[in-house]
Write a structure and sequence with these properties.
- By secondary structure, this protein is an alpha/beta fold.
- It has two domains: 183 residues, Rossmann fold (3-Layer(aba) Sandwich), CATH 3.40.50; 114 residues, Phosphofructokinase domain (Rossmann fold).
- Helices cover 42% and strands 18% of the residues.
- The chain has eleven helices and eleven strands.
- The strands form two sheets. The chain has a seven-stranded mixed beta sheet with strand order 3-2-1-4-5-10-11, sandwiched between helices. The chain has a four-stranded parallel beta sheet with strand order 7-8-6-9, sandwiched between helices.
- Strand 4, helix 4 and strand 5 form a beta-alpha-beta unit.
- Helix 5 crosses helix 6.
- The radius of gyration is 22 Å and the shape is elongated.
C-alpha cells in the first residue's frame, strides 16, 4: 500500500482528533501518503479529500470534536452513493481506508469492502461503549467523567433542597454510561435498557431513605430505558408515590470537551494499530484493546456480537 485515507463518521466522540493524529503520523512513519476525508461518507461521495501532513495534526490531541468533521449520510445507504464513494477512492489510488466511528459507520465500510474490494479497518469511537471487541471505546471515559461532574453538582443542589433528582444520560440501547456514572456518583438507582426497571421498588427505596433523613436522592437513567425517558419516569414515580422530581437531561454536553488522558492514550494506540492492520493484511477488522492488549476482530463482530455490562457494576449499583 502507498496511499491511505481516514475519516470520522457518525456521532462525534472526544478523542477522535487524537486518533486522527496517530493514524496520520503512523502512516507517515511507514512511508505512506494519507488523505483525510471531510464529513465522513458524505465527503467520500462529494470527493472532499485533503492531504494530511504530519504538521497538519499538530496541536489537536487535546481538542474535542473532529477536525475532519462528521456527518450521517443517507446517500451512502444507496448503491449509487457507494459507487461514487468507491470511484473517488480509486481515482485517487487510495488502497486502504481507516474509519473512526461506531457500528453504523463500520457497516458502511464493510459494504464498500464487499462491493468494491476496498480494504477497511474500523477504530471504535463512540461514547456509548457498546461495540464488541474492545474493553473501552474512544470517548467513553470522557463522557463518563463529564456526566459524573454534572451529577456531583446536582447532588449538592439535591442535598440543599431535600429533593429527588432524575439525571438522564445518553444511551439509547446501552446502559454503559448510566451504570458507570451511577456507581461513581452514588446514585440511589440506575435505570438502563439491559435490565427490567422496577419503579415501585425504586419508589419504596427512595421513600425509605427519606424517612431515615437522607437529604439527597438521585436516580440515573439511560435515555433508552424501557420505562421511558426522565420526564416519563418522573411522571410515573409521582403517580406511584407522590414524590415530585427535578429533572436534568445532560444530552450532547456528554459528547463535548477535551478528552481525558485515558481517551487520548487509547485513541493514539488504536489509530497507530489501524494503519498496521491495513499494511499487514488483517482487514476487514476492528482494532480494539482488551486487558491492555491490542486486538483485531472481524469487523462484523462489532455489530453481530453483543457487548455485556460488567456484572460486578450491576451488583454494586443495586446494593451500594
Amino acid at each position: 500500500m502507498k496511499k491511505l485515507a481516514v475519516l470520522t463518521s457518525g456521532g462525534d466522540a472526544p478523542g477522535m482528533n487524537a486518533c486522527i493524529r496517530a493514524t496520520v503520523r503512523r502512516a507517515h512513519n511507514r512511508g505512506l501518503f494519507i488523505f483525510g476525508v471531510r464529513k465522513g461518507y458524505e465527503g467520500l461521495i462529494d470527493n472532499d479529500f485533503v492531504e494530511l501532513k504530519s504538521s497538519d495534526v499538530s496541536n489537536i490531541i487535546q481538542r474535542g470534536g473532529t477536525i475532519l468533521h462528521s456527518a450521517r449520510s443517507d446517500r451512502f445507504l444507496t448503491e449509487e452513493g457507494r459507487a461514487r464513494a468507491a470511484s473517488n477512492l480509486k481515482k485517487r489510488k487510495v488502497e486502504g481506508l481507516v474509519i473512526i466511528g461506531g457500528d453504523g459507520s463500520f457497516r458502511g465500510a464493510d459494504a464498500l469492502r464487499i462491493e468494491y474490494a476496498i480494504p477497511v479497518v474500523g477504530v471504535p469511537a463512540t461514547i456509548d461503549n457498546d461495540l464488541w471487541g474492545t474493553d473501552l471505546t474512544i470517548g467513553f471515559d470522557t463522557a463518563v467523567n463529564t456526566a459524573l461532574d454534572a451529577i456531583d453538582k446536582v447532588r449538592d443542589t439535591a442535598a440543599a433542597h431535600d429533593r429527588l433528582f432524575i439525571v438522564e444520560v445518553m444511551g439509547r440501547s446501552a446502559g454503559f454510561i448510566a451504570l458507570e456514572v451511577g456507581v461513581g456518583g452514588g446514585a440511589e438507582a440506575v435505570l438502563i435498557p439491559e435490565t427490567e426497571t422496577d419503579l415501585e421498588g425504586i419508589c419504596s427505596k427512595v421513600k425509605g431513605r427519606i424517612s431515615r433523613g437522607r437529604t439527597s436522592n438521585i436516580l440515573v437513567v439511560a435515555e433508552g430505558d424501557e420505562a421511558g425517558n426522565a420526564f416519563e419516569i418522573a411522571r410515573k414515580i409521582e403517580d406511584i408515590s407522590g414524590l415530585k422530581s427535578r429533572i436534568t437531561v445532560l444530552g450532547h454536553v456528554q459528547r463535548g470537551g477535551s478528552p481525558t488522558a485515558a481517551d487520548r492514550v487509547l485513541a493514539s494506540k488504536l489509530g497507530w494499530a489501524a494503519v498496521d492492520a491495513l499494511l499487514e493484511g488483517a482487514w476487514p477488522c476492528m482494532v480494539g484493546e482488551i486487558n491492555s492488549e491490542i486486538t483485531r476482530y472481524p469487523l462484523a463482530d462489532s455489530w453481530t456480537k453483543r457487548k455485556k455490562l460488567d456484572p460486578l457494576l450491576l451488583t454494586l449499583s443495586e446494593n451500594l
